[in-house]
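Here we describe the complex-level prediction in full. Unlike the single-chain runs in Section 2.1, the two entities below were treated as one system.
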Amino acid sequence: MAGRGKLIALIGDEDTCTGFLLGGVGELNKSRKPNFLVVEKDTSVTEIEETFKSFLARDDIGIILINQFIAEMIRHAIDAHMQSIPAVLEIPSKEHPYDANKDSILRRAKGMFSVEDFR
Amino acid sequence: MKDEVSLRLEGCLLRFMDQLELLEEKRQQLNSLIEQGWFSISKARYAMGNKQVSALQYSSEIVPQVSVHVRTLPNGETGFETEQMGQQPSGDAKDAARRVEEVGPVDEGVRRRKAATAKNSEDHSDSSTKPVAEEELSISKVPPGQQDPLKWFGILVPQSLKQAQSAFRQVIELSAEIASLQTAVLSTRKELHTLMGEKHKAPTGKESSES
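The structure predicted for the assembly as a whole is:
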């Protein structure tokens, strides 16, 4: 059934947010909370974690994009998220390139093989 | 029994490897496009000034132009698909896409406004002036929140900022594909675990025939 689509939320540095907002993912009006957070040098880890959890609690968000260096700050919260919706996608930032070894999804996929399984 | 489970396990493992390979490929495309986007934003910042391309320019009211549709596939996996939401109150999506891209002779479009709107329903093989005229009309009706985000940074923005927007739009589409692939990878992983458990529990062919 066709209905209103879900939003793409974003937690990133200024350049990342500017780029994605140019792409049209942002939402901000007087009555609703924004679906993005611009992380600056003085943004606390608590604020980032609370924003992430608030995005998880919303039923109108389908994907959460987050810079990987910010995801590292709240890794415990990301690893605890097991549902398929919203999907969490870690993206690189200008100063921190993407590292597949740190990605929660790929770490979960990697950690399944052992020698015993192939006997 | 064990042979059957082994066969299913092998098929599942091959599918898992294919999904991982595709995920890696999409990731590289995404990272490359994001870097292009940043580079274009930096060029725009250089041309316009540091403060002219920053969070200070974001509109106080923003309406999303992209939404993502989530659907459950027949195999139980979750699929994500992006959709561009119309900026204008009416009109085709194709016309809207054309209007965004074409920067035609504005003056001619303004003068021919009445003729263009009258003929628009009959003649779709139009000149570049017609879409521009309609864009001007539609922009005057659209509230500030629904404007193209490029307009936050000024009326005449450098080409590099438009390139940045184009790059990030592609990134958004790729993000949906990667989200679908990620859920597929995790679902296949779960299936592999289940099959491995079955394989270890299932008796071998010899044991079952001897008993």
